[in-house]
Structures are given as structure tokens and as C-alpha cells.
Please model this.
Amino acid sequence: MSVEPILSVENLSVRIAGLHILQGVSFDVAPTGVTVLLGRNGVGKTTTLRAIVGLTPRNGEVRGTIRMGAQSLLARPTHRLVRGGLGYVPEDRCVFAGLTVAENLRLAERRGTTPAYDKVFALFPELDRRGRQRAGSLSGGQQQMLAIGRVLLNDNRLLLVDEPTKGLAPKVVTEVAEVLERVAESVPVLLVEQNLAVVRRLAKDAVVLSAGRVAWTGNAQDLLLETALTKSLLGVGSGEVPASARSESGLRAPQSRAKDGAA
Ligand SMILES: Nc1ncnc2c1ncn2[C@@H]1O[C@H](COP(=O)(O)OP(=O)(O)O)[C@@H](O)[C@H]1O
Ligand SMILES: [Mg+2]
Model:
């Protein structure tokens, strides 16, 4: 990478409960745009994000180097990392179901800063309209918007977003992808995403994990053209986007980019 990465992971090793999940993972995240972290289920994508943000379980062991700019992140407490501009949208969304939307947002405000409600409500007008609704009664898509909006209240130097479209209807997948696209114009994103149509739309760079290591890095659009590679590394051909995702989500079908001989 010719420009300085915003995040640099070197030789990251994570063991949890006797399992050696990450066995020397190294990759960079570009200072602009979306870098996507890919790999089959259970390969360690969430474990990677959690190690970056300091949320490895207590019975886990983390080794290696993680740097954001000149700063070393390992061994720093999560609240410090977040205050330093590392935003994390976890896989399971983690909104407070019993609290209202407005209360969920208020809890995310960082002391000593001015929360960017205008920006968040411009991206997600529904969060403004549904301020008094209990978060537990929101749809999956609305909860995802709340989980992302909450992080965007504060200034971030880098966002980590874990499978934001998982389990969502195709129309909502498109909405989430549109929001992430706009967000990534101003802050770099490390995104875990299984929906290859979303990857195609958003990602500039790709990192693929396999068997505890990095199996491939490079241009995300190049990776998606390599059907044999995506099949062996991800278990799917890049052309295998469900018809529903093509027609309803408005996302470009991968076949439209396939060049001769790629399949
Ligand atoms: N807290 C934990 N205790 C035991 N095993 C775990 C824990 N967290 C993750 N694992 C295991 O580590 C592997 C990687 O998990 P994960 O990072 O969640 O994968 P991915 O996000 O790529 O689907 C899986 O085999 C999972 O069962
Ligand atoms: Mg995961």
C-alpha cells in the first residue's frame, strides 16, 4: 500500500479456550474507503474485530501488533480506544431493547464532545421520527440503523462494522449499504460482510481469512471476478447472488462485471 494505512495488523494471534483461532494474521486498512474482511463462517472475522477493539474474552490470549497511526492499540482498554476514535458496530447490534431510540443514542454520547445528531438524523431520518419507540420493537433493519447511528454520533478515525446486513430483507440490505457508502466518504471502514453484492458495491480492498491466516489480499473487485477463488475461499461463486438481491435490492449483479474467462 503506497499511502500510510489507518490500521495495521501484524502477526495477530488469538487463542480462546484452547482454540488457536487466529494464527498470525497481518493486513492493512487503507485510510479511505471500505476494506472488507471476508472468509467462511467461523474463520475468525469477528474475533479479529474484537481483538482490534480490545474485546477478546478474558480467557483469551492476544499476541501481535495492532496500530492505528503511530499508536499501538493492544493492551489499551476499549473505552480509551473508542474515545480515541475507534467506532465499533458489533455483529449482534447490541441495542438496549428496553430503552427508547433516543435513550440508546443518549447513552452513546461521549463526554466532552458535541454529539452529531444533525448528521445522524440526516442519514437516518427514521431514528429522529422513532425517538420515543422502544428499541426492542424496531425491525432488524431499524435496529441496525440505530447501531450504526449510535457510533456516528461521535467523531471516528476508523469504523469496524461486523455483518451489518445479516438477516435483513433485500430492500433493507440496500438501505444499509447506501448508508455505509455515504459514511465511508468521510471515515475509513473495516467491514465484515458476507453479501457479495454489498461487497461489490462498497469495497475497495479485500482481506480473506482462511484456516486462521490471511489467504488473500488485494483489490476487492478483482477478487469478485475470480469465481474459482471466491468458491474455494468463501464457499460461494461470486456469481451466486440470489435473484432477490439482484432484483429487489437494486445492487448490481456480479455477472455484469464478469470478464471473459473469469468464470
Ligand atoms: N468466546 C469464545 N469461546 C470459544 N470459542 C470461540 C469464542 N469466540 C469465537 N470462538 C470460536 O472461534 C472461531 C471463530 O469465530 P468468529 O470469529 O466468531 O468467526 P466468524 O466471525 O468468522 O464467523 C469459531 O470456531 C468460534 O466458535
Ligand atoms: Mg462473525
Observations:
- The radius of gyration is 18 Å.
